[in-house]
Amino acid sequence: MTIRVAMAQLDMLVGDIKNNTESVIEQSIKARDEQKADVIVFPELTLTGYPPEDLLLRPSLATRIESAISDILGRVDDIYVVVGYPRVIDGELFNCAGVFYQGDILGEYAKQKLPNFQVFDDKRYFNEGQTACIVDIKGAKVGLSICEDIWHPEPIAQAKDAGAELILNLNASPFHIEKMGVRERLLQLRASENGLPIVYVNYMGAQDELVYEGGSFVVDAKGVKVRQAPWYEKGLYTVDFTVAEDREHRVAPMPGEISPAMEVEASVYQAMVTGLRDYIEKNRFKGIVLGLSGGIDSALSLAVAVDAIGADRVQAVMMPYTYTSSMSLEDAEEEAKLLGVEYSVLPIEPMVTAFMNTLAPEFEGYGRDTTEENLQARTRGVTLMAISNKKGYMVLTTGNKSEMAVGYATLYGDMVGGYSVLKDVFKTLVFRLSWYRNTLGYVIPERVITRPPSAELAPDQVDEDSLPSYEVLDQILRMYIEQDMSAEAILGSNQFDRETVYRVLRLVDLNEYKRRQAPTGVRITERGFGRDRRYPMTNGWHIGE
C-alpha cells in the first residue's frame, strides 16, 4: 500500500483566522484532487499564523478556533488534514495538532516541549502536553509532534513506544544562518535513534522580524534525507510512503526530488527579500522610499527593495549636503538607473541652514560638534518621512548591525523608518552580500563596494575615524552579542587591543536606548537585536569578567 503525503509549505497572515482557514480548505482540496494526496500536513499554528503573540490572550480566540475547525471538518473530505492551531481544553490553552478526516477529529496532540528562549515565548501562553497521539492512516500508525518536540528525545521515543511507525512534525522554525544544516542533523539523529521516518513541514514566509524559509523535508528510518522541498518557495510538495506487511521498517518513504542546498549569501539575501516583501504586502504599503547616499548600505538595501516588490514601487532619494562627494552623487544615480527606480535629488542645505539660523541663539558660546552632523541626518529623516506620509510609501532604513551595535546612527535621523533589511547584518557581511547580488546582475557599482565607508557628515570623514576596522569590530561584536563573552574572555581568545575591546563593549551597552527605538528588521542570526536580545537600558553592570 502507498500513502501520499503533501507537505503544505505556505505563508499565513498572523491573526487572520478566517482567511487562513480558507487557505487550509483550498489547499487540502487541491492536494486531494490535483496531487492525489492521501494526507496533507500544515505547519504549526497554521490557523492563527505564527507567532500570534498576545493575540492568544484575546477572549474570542477559543470561539474563532472552534468555528474554524468546524468549517474545515464540514467542507473537506476524502483526505486526512493534519493542521496546527491553539485550543482551549478544560480551561487551559494548548498548542495543538489535529488530524481531521470525514468530518471527525481522529486525534489531537498537544505540544510537549515549549521553548522559552531566543524569539520564543511558548510558556507565556501554553500548557505542556503530556501524551503521545497515534492515528491510523490507511493502516499505518502515525505519530504527531510539533516543532520543539523534535529537539528533545522524549516525545519521539514516547510516540514510538505508543506504536508510531511514522512521525509528522509540524513546524514554525525561523531562519538563521546555518539553521538548514542544523535541522537536517537533528532529524538524522531522531530518526536513527528511534528507527522511524520523519516528515518535517515548515512555514514559508515572514512575520515582522522572523523569516521562515520553508525547506520542508523527509528522512527515512535511518536518518537519510529522501525528499527536500525548495527553500523560499510556497507550494505543496509530495512524498510517497510504502506500507509493507512484514519488514523491519514497515512504513518507508520512497525517494523523491531533493532541492539543492543554498550558500550562506544566497540564503541570507533571500531571507532579506522575503522579510521585506511580506512586511510591505501584509501591511499594505503602496511602496518603499529610501535615502540613497551612494554608499554600500543604501545600495544593498535598494537592491533588496527592488527584488522584493519591483522597481515600479520603489523611490530612491539622494539628499546631498556640502560634504557629499561627487563620487557619491554619481554612484547613487548609477545605482538608481541600473535598478530602474524613480530617483530624486533633493538638496538639504537650505533646510539645514534654516535650522542652524533658528538655533543660533541656543548654540551661541558652544563649539561645533556632532550636533551639526546630526542635524544633517535628521533633516534627511524629516524629508523621507514627509514623502512617506504624502505617498503612502514606507521608509526603508539602511543601517547595518555593526553600526546599530555601537550607536553609529542618528536617532530620528538615519534611523527613521518602518523596516530595516540590514538590521541583523554585520558590515563585513554587507560587503559579501553586495558582491553576491552583483553575480545575479550588476546593480551595485564596484567602487561603492571597495571604497572606504563614510557617513559624509564632515569633511573627509570615514567610518574608521570613529570605529575600529570592520573586520576587528565585527569579530568583537559577534563574541559579545551572539556568544555573551565578557571583555576579558574576548581579550583572552584574540590579540585585540584592550582599550578597543572595552570601548566597543561600552558603546554597545550605552546604545541600548537607541536600539529600542529602531525599526524592526529581518533576523538572520541566532542573536539579533529585537526579540532575541533584551537588555535593560538603565543598569549598573560593570564590563570585565
TrEMBL record:
Pfam families: CN_hydrolase, NAD_synthase. PROSITE patterns: CN_HYDROLASE. It comes from Rhodanobacter aciditrophus. Its EC number is 6.3.5.1. The active site is at E44, K111, C147. Gene3D superfamilies: Carbon-nitrogen hydrolase (3.60.110.10), HUPs (3.40.50.620). It comes from the Bacteria. This is Glutamine-dependent NAD(+) synthetase. It catalyses: deamido-NAD(+) + L-glutamine + ATP + H2O = L-glutamate + AMP + diphosphate + NAD(+) + H(+). Residues 3-243 form the CN hydrolase domain. Deamido-NAD(+) binds at N374, E403, K514. SUPFAM superfamilies: Adenine nucleotide alpha hydrolases-like (SSF52402), Carbon-nitrogen hydrolase (SSF56317). Belongs to the NAD synthetase family. One of its GO terms (molecular function) is NAD+ synthase (glutamine-hydrolyzing) activity. L-glutamine binds at S173, K179. Catalyzes the ATP-dependent amidation of deamido-NAD to form NAD. Uses L-glutamine as a nitrogen source. Pathway: Cofactor biosynthesis; NAD(+) biosynthesis; NAD(+) from deamido-NAD(+) (L-Gln route): step 1/1. Keywords: ATP-binding, Ligase, NAD, Nucleotide-binding. ATP binds at G291, L292, S293, G294, G295, I296, D297, S298, T398.
